[in-house]
Amino acid sequence: MKQENNTGGVFSIAEMSLLLKISARSLAYWFDSNSGLGILPINKNKKSRKENLFSFSDMIEVYTYFHLKNTLHIKKAEILRSHATLSELFKTDYPFNSKKWLVSGGDILFANSDENSTIVKANGTYQSVFSDILDLFQVKLDFNDDGQAMRYHPIGKDHNILVDPNINYGSPVISENNAGTRIEASFIYKLLQDNSIADVKDSYNLSDKSIKDVNTFYGVAA
Q1: What is the SS3 assignment for 166?
Q2: What pLDDT, on the 0 to 100 scale, is given for residue 115?
Q3: What is the pTM of this model?
């Protein structure tokens, strides 16, 4: 099966724990091929498992799984069945990185192009659904023209913290005017421990909002 993942970022379990606000223990469990999800390509790659380094696409698969399970309260079995269906449909091991599927209530859905784009369930039944659709990804993800996840906003798009796998290997950076800088959020956070807000702002030409968002990010995600 084709694996079109975004390999620009490199993330450890500890880094993903910070970004996704999921405990490192839980992530380690789900990345274990014996006890965990089993849906992730990373679980099929012995070298990657041993090194415990993961791609941006791996992280988004996990982010989506936990969002579906913990926030939208969709059962694990339903998520895994839908993941398998979408994986085959989209010809990729990373279907949750795509914008081509939707969520409504407790159902994971996609537009069945063979049936005049009828919205159907992705759990293998292909049952038609007629209800309001919730776009799962708009809050924290940006997509490229092909509908693939390309950037992640860990505390939301209305904040100035950005994860772009093509900038600093995916380390969280300051985003000013909707564009990612190369100033790492962790660097600014450390400076703020020993310097005044005014000095840090002036030295790196940052807005009040960016300073506030750095503190919010580490306060929320710690």
Answers
A1: coil
A2: 46
A3: 0.81
How remote is the C-alpha of 85 from its chain's centroid?
Answer: 20
Question: What local confidence, expressed as pLDDT, does residue 30 receive?
Answer: 75
pLDDT in tens, 130-162: 444 455 556 799 999 988 999 999 999 999 999
The two most distant CA atoms of the chain are separated, in Å, by 61
What residues are paired with 211 via a beta bridge?
none
What does each C-alpha distance from 118 to 107, 112, 126, 147, 153 come to in angstroms? 15, 5, 10, 19, 31
CA distances from 105 to 88, 99, 152, 156 (A): 23, 17, 24, 22
Report the amino acid identity of residue 135.
D
Q: How confident is the model at residue 3 (pLDDT cuts 50, 70, 90)?
A: very low
Are 189 and 171 within 8 A, CB to CB? no
User: Beta strand 141-143 with 149-152: parallel, antiparallel or unpaired?
Assistant: antiparallel
- Residue among 97, 26, 39, 107 at smallest CA distance from 73: 107
d(CA 201, CA 191): 10
CA distance linking residue 165 with residue 219, whole number of Å? 23
Question: Contact 122/116 with Cβ under 8 angstroms?
Answer: no
Nearest to 107 by CA among 132, 141, 137, 138: 132
Contacts of 49 (CB under 8 A, 6+ apart): 31, 33, 42, 43
Mean pLDDT of the chain: 79
